[in-house]
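User: Assemble these into one structure.

Assistant: Restating your components, then the assembled model:
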Amino acid sequence: MKAAVLVFPGSNCDRDMAKAFEAAGFDVSMIWHKDHALPEGVDIVGVPGGFSYGDYLRCGAIAANSPICRELKQHAEAGGYVLGVCNGFQVLTETGLLPGALLRNAGLKYICRTVPLVVGTEDSVFTQDYEKGQEILIPIAHHDGNYFADDATLDRLEADDRVAFRYGRNPNGSARDIAGILSENRRVLGMMPHPERAAEDAHGNTDGKPVFDALATALERVLA
Amino acid sequence: MKARVHVMLKTGVLDPQGEAVRHALGALGFDGVEGVRQGKVIDLELAAGTTEAQVAEMCEKLLANTVIESYQIEMQ
């Protein structure tokens, strides 16, 4: 199983994400933003957290238009799997792979702490090792995590069971407490909280590990 | 030639920064500020012959995120 993690100038969670993929059994390549191709046969592309391009213009806006993101879009449109965390989620909304946008936190502050999340659906390769309604603890670290979409989009996300995670106590003003959403084909997950920061015993919390393990199990089955 | 692009959060999208500015103005004793919306101004220096339609395309593709923002173009 092959994973690729994109690296933009200003990415700072790329190695954490690579470690989490490796621990779940993936061969991981790091792909620089100026590259024009993903490695052949890549199953999942990780878009990591950080401050790509210094958050200039809008968080994720410049990254979304970088050469490698054209490849990312093709990968996703061809049915490939994608996980975007934090800035990665912002990049995915800016590319249009996921609906909505991430606004400045309602309280205007950068928030860095571990928060309770409620699993919204078991129906995805990322969340199938959790139970719907299960509460988990995952760290957040963002200034612009306030999920926004119009009511029709929010209604559709809910009707299609595409809300992967909700905040237990809304820290940033996100519409309908949304912390993470799935694409229509359920193969692209974007989330503001950092599962890769809660994936090893040394982190003091492994509530995020099932995201990577579930993905590995699912892909093993698909590839077998 | 030049163009100036104004990018604002759409009506209905909460602007917490604008709200913070409104509170700060109130704290300074400026009464009667009923609302503040904060946006961006982007000045473009353009090759002669660039059309407003081309600038609009720049806005749609990069300068504004039309999910949350609206834009206005002034060709100068």
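The CA atoms of residues 20 and 66 of chain B lie 24 Å apart.
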